[in-house]
Amino acid sequence: MSMLKVGDRLPEFKLTATVDTDINKAFTEISYDSYPGKWLVLFFWPKDFTFVCPTEIVAFNDLNDQFKENNAVLLGGSTDSEFVHRAWRQYNKDLSNLSFPMLSDIKHELCNNLGILDSAAGVAQRATFIIDPEGIIRFNMVTDLSVGRNPEEVLRILRALQDGGLCPCNWQPGQNTINVAEAA
């Protein structure tokens, strides 16, 4: 299956997520309908207990308050199980206090439906999606398994999408958008 594109609807899903290291409150179910009226920033990494992935996860976590301020819910995930996510959070002190859920797509259902399952490696590609409150994909990006992404750029793109104007290259919140009448 090819990767879903901008304008496609986010497929329905229901996955177990790791939200804490305490075994008594470590897991919860998250579905397509869990965050009505919110933008979703959905990002996947190839494998837990690797080297590039935690740098991205920590960088996204560092910006999570800013995503929340922009009416967005941050959801990260991989094809690892919820138990592997919990073990990784216990093992890696930088991941122990994450403020967003780690989705477990162990059956590869969501990754397959999004078209981001790496057929050679059998893991999620390093993919990012921004989904609007109506469930429509407004941005997607995939990088090579060996190359980390820039969460600050993902936040900038979210803000540009929410602005609703024609945002020029390198646009930042507070800057002018393009006025078509003036540009003509």
From TrEMBL:
CDD domains: PRX_Typ2cys. InterPro entries: AhpC/TSA (IPR000866), Peroxiredoxin (IPR050217), Peroxiredoxin_AhpC-typ (IPR024706), Peroxiredoxin_C (IPR019479), Thioredoxin-like_sf (IPR036249), Thioredoxin_domain (IPR013766). This is Alkyl hydroperoxide reductase C. Residues 4-163 form the Thioredoxin domain. It catalyses: a hydroperoxide + NADH + H(+) = an alcohol + NAD(+) + H2O. Homodimer; disulfide-linked, upon oxidation. 5 homodimers assemble to form a ring-like decamer. The active site is at residue 53. It comes from Candidatus Rickettsiella viridis. One of its GO terms (biological process) is response to oxidative stress. Belongs to the peroxiredoxin family. AhpC/Prx1 subfamily. GO terms for molecular function: NADH-dependent peroxiredoxin activity; thioredoxin peroxidase activity. It is an enzyme of class 1 (oxidoreductase).
